Amino acid sequence: MAAKKLILAIVIVMFEIAAAVEREITVHVDAGKEECFFETVIKGNTLTVEYQVIDGGSTQMAELDINFRIMNPRGQPLIAEFKKSDGAHSQRVEELGDYKICFDNKFSYVSSKTVYFEMINENEDEEYDDLAGIFDDDEEADTEYYEVQVSDIEGKLKKIKEDIVKARHLQDLIRVTDLKDRSIMEHNFERVNVMSCVYVFVLISAGLCQVALVRSLFDDKSKINPLWKKAFKD
After folding, report:
1. pTM of the model
2. Residue 121's CB: how many other CB atoms inside 10 A?
């Protein structure tokens, strides 16, 4: 019986751990535009937003920056940053409501931006003291038999949760950095191709002009030949 209740306790704790809201979104913000998102947060929860600009457009003057802000349900700014490439912010919520998360690219007239951000809405002060009620006093012998304490379960599950969060964060960071580097590489590749085509066109044009000028020296019917003769006489 104690084993079944132990399993029930673990299931309850894992359900509470998974109750936190976590979202990962990649948004494209056009030049001169602003994109906003709303998240309903209850009082006492902590709203965490971490963002990174992974693409700044294909123009020569493109930069990886964006304006960022979080506003409370009354429209008052809680956090504001200007022309940042990345950032991470945690805000403990003191009132229930819809909080507004905005990425502003109005300062840019040409370059669009692609922003990846992760949003976590959770209660960091959540405890698991209610697990003690699962085990009755008359089952102390069984509890001692399995040598398992509720406090030990709680501590281990919290440690597992922290390790999982750290691992996911590192994986997301590696993935976002890869996307950012891939975007920069693709834009550089496009620029190299464009400039290569321009240089090839200039070289071919210069070669054709040289051939035409040399032929005009020996062709009396050429329109340029009189100019050469006049230049040599002078």
Report:
1. 0.60
2. 20
Residue from 86, 21, 83 nearest 51 by CA: 86
- Write the single-letter amino acid at 171: Q
The Cα-based distances of 229 to 2, 38, 101 in angstroms read: 112, 79, 75
Residue type, 62: A
DSSP H or E stretch at residue 174: helix 150-218
Rounded to 5 degrees, φ, ψ at 60 are -65, -30
Per-residue pLDDT of 121-173, as tens digits, reads 887 665 555 555 555 544 554 555 455 566 677 777 777 877 787 787 778 77
Cα–Cα–Cα angle for 8, 17, 6, rounded to 5 degrees: 20
Q: Which two tokens stand for residue 187?
A: 């834009």
Indicate the residue type of 44.
Answer: G
Tell me the two tokens of residue 63.
Answer: 């930069």
Which DSSP symbol is given to 82?
A: E
* Token pair in block for residue 180: 């950012």
Torsion angle defined by CA atoms of residues 27, 28, 32 and 36, in that order, rounded to the nearest 10 degrees: -20
Q: Are 52 and 180 in contact (CB under 8 A)?
A: yes
Q: Please tell me the distance from the alpha carbon of residue 99 to that of residue 117, in angstroms, as a whole number.
A: 15
> Nearest to residue 55, comparing CAs of 109, 113, 107?
113
180's CB contacts (< 8 A; 6+ apart) are 52, 53, 54, 55, 64
